[in-house]
Specification:
- By secondary structure, this protein is α+β, with helices and mostly antiparallel strands.
- The protein is built from 10 helices and 15 strands.
- The strands form 4 sheets. Strands 1-2-6-3-7-14 form a 6-stranded mixed beta sheet, sandwiched between helices.
- A hairpin with a 2-residue loop joins β4 and β5.
- It is elongated.
- The protein starts with a helix and ends with a helix.
Length: 376
């Protein structure tokens, strides 16, 4: 089957994050099984989601991982020209949810299996399929933890997020956290009997605003990124139920995106310290927090070998950095040299009428063909 035909099968399955991915996993396994390739199924703790890992070539020598996530973002609230879960061709463009982000790369991985099998590979190609990337790269860590049992230490990992086929060297790290401020309810006619949770929440959000301004002013900075420093934002605030009730609870969600070399957790820790101070000052009864999502930054490589290889394979110059995050940071943190390179454009991702072009799929397959030849 061609990459386009496989992509049609993948797009037809609305594999949304946070839900069972049994249908998508079965689809991928079915395509690989047609070529006699067996998958190792790596279940996540959720009980209804799995990662998949397959190898073509010798397992006992180092090779390269091709990695991509199976889930896609929802389409609710978006106006599409056609059914987002049915691949539609219009000229060179192929429309559907996930075509660029990132089922196009998965389709190319699977389509190239017969070509890899026909090659006298001296080093293996590993195919990694992960879940729940779109809600904080939650699935791939369980796959990475199993790598020592699955293969020899890899030479590198190519994460096929949409980059217009340009090899990307680095991205920021991220942590999203929910903060809960608890007060005491009372009738608004006697506010002194209550403890309004909105007020310490407002103070905390002003602290977040001011800390973000300090980061923008003082750094540290990395000129590869735009903006060049770490960022901090409060994105969601929810509290109160009626104007005549003193609110006893307020919820704030915030996000840190940090440049390589700076831990997002270190920035979050300053906010948590201020939250603890508000409780100690008697402005709130309790303050708690929980992590919503997190992944480390992908720093620029110290060894240029992988970047040089991907420039050769893709025929495209490297891009120093991107503003979005990927699973590459997690592979890097586990000691696997990693780079991002895949078909499609991030500018089309998460939007109505997302598409990829046939030319982009062909370019990706050509890159993977060259990778296989390098491993012979």
């Amino acid at each position: 089957m061609t990459a386009e035909q496989i992509l049609a099968d993948l797009v037809a399955i609305p594999d949304l994050p946070g839900q069972s991915n049994a249908r998508m996993a079965a689809c991928v396994q079915g395509h690989l099984a047609r070529h006699g390739v067996e998958c190792t199924v790596i279940a996540g703790p959720e009980g209804d989601r799995v990662n998949l890992f397959a190898t073509i070539g010798p397992r006992d020598v180092p090779g390269y991982i091709l990695s991509g996530h199976m889930d896609v973002v929802p389409v609710e609230g978006q106006v599409w020209t056609s059914d987002p879960f049915r691949l539609r061709a219009e000229g060179d463009r192929l429309f559907g949810r996930g075509t660029s982000d990132m089922k196009g790369f998965l389709a190319c991985m699977i389509a190239m299996v017969p070509a890899f099998q026909a090659m006298p590979l001296q080093r293996p190609v590993h195919l990694a399929f992960s879940y729940d990337e779109e809600i904080g790269c939650r699935g791939v860590g369980h796959l990475i933890a199993r790598l020592p049992d699955l293969c020899a230490p890899p030479l590198g990992c190519i994460v096929g997020e949409p980059t217009d086929m340009r090899p990307v060297l680095s991205h920021k790290g991220k942590q999203a956290v929910e903060l809960v401020i608890e007060g005491r309810a009372a009738h608004s006619a006697q506010p002194d009997l209550g403890l309004n949770a909105l007020y310490p929440a407002a103070e905390l959000m002003l602290f977040i605003r001011d800390l973000a301004a300090r980061l923008a002013e003082d750094g540290p900075f990395d000129a590869r990124f735009s903006p060049p420093g770490s960022t901090l934002v409060a994105g969601v605030v929810q509290g109160g139920s009626a104007v005549n009730i003193i609110p006893d609870r307020c919820r704030v969600q915030m996000e840190v995106r940090s440049v390589p070399g700076t831990s997002p957790q270190a920035i979050t820790a300053q906010v948590l310290e201020r939250l603890a101070d508000l409780v100690a000052e008697g402005k709130a009864l309790r303050g708690t927090h929980s992590e919503l999502s997190s992944y480390p930054a992908l720093p620029p490589p110290e060894d240029p070998a992988l970047a040089d290889l991907l420039q050769h394979l893709s025929g495209q110059p490297v891009l120093p950095s991107v503003s979005y995050g990927t699973e590459a940071g997690l592979f890097h943190a586990a000691g696997v040299p990693s780079i991002i390179c895949g078909p499609g454009s991030i500018l089309r991702a998460h939007r109505p009428d997302e598409f990829i072009t046939r030319a982009e799929l062909a370019a990706c397959c050509q890159m993977l063909q060259r990778l296989g030849e390098e491993l012979c």
